Amino acid sequence: MTKLTHKAAGTFAIAPTPFRDDGRIDDKSIDRLTDFYAEIGCDGVTVLGILGEAPKLEGSEAEEVAKRFVKRAKNMQIIVGISAPGFAADALAGAGIPLDAGAAGVMIAPPPHLRTDEQITGYFKQAVEGITAGS
């Protein structure tokens, strides 16, 4: 899969994380969603964003969702959200999982309690250092 660059263009859908009635991840619905986005001409799909279900998932569940979308996505780029309230070691280690699985990139958003430019830029510096140290 091609990695995302500053030249990325097109339409990237923001995918929900589908669940079964019992709360488990719905793999068949992930497949149908991915196929649907491809059929309507999306260039990519963003999964596990911070405004949806992602913060409610265990790390292993998030990994499962990311890998499922990446595996199914044939000619689309998948961007995987890896945001966390802080950059614990396991959150940073998790950044490599979607990239190793073939994701085009990861998406990181700072936690809402950061207010100053210094706090926000410090957060992103820490993220870049952590992710690049794992690669």
Could you characterize what this model shows?
With 135 residues, the chain is of the alpha/beta class. It has one domain (12-133): TIM Barrel. Helices cover 42% and strands 11% of the residues. It contains 4 helices and 4 strands; from the N terminus they run βαβαβαβα. The chain has helices spanning 27-39, 59-72, 89-101, 117-133; strands at 12-14, 44-47, 77-81, 105-107. A 4-stranded parallel β-sheet has the order 1-2-3-4, with helices on one face. The longest helix has 17 residues, at 117-133. The two termini are 17 Å apart. The model is unreliable at 86-90 (pLDDT under 50).
Write the SSE topology.
Layout: E1 12-14, H1 27-39, E2 44-47, H2 59-72, E3 77-81, H3 89-101, E4 105-107, H4 117-133
Parallel strand pairs: 1-2, 2-3, 3-4
Helix pairs in contact: 1-2, 2-3
Euclidean distance between termini CA atoms: 17 Å
Strand arrangement, major sheet: 1-2-3-4
User: How many helix segments?
Assistant: 4
Q: Residue share in helices?
A: 40-55%
- CATH fold-level topology: TIM Barrel
Biggest beta sheet attributes: 4 strands, parallel
Average of pLDDT:
84
Shape descriptor reads globular
According to CATH, the homologous superfamily is Aldolase class I
Total number of strands = 4
Structural class: alpha/beta
CATH architecture: Alpha-Beta Barrel
Low-confidence segments, given as residue ranges, are 86-90
> Rg from C-alpha positions?
15 Å
Order of helices and strands: EHEHEHEH
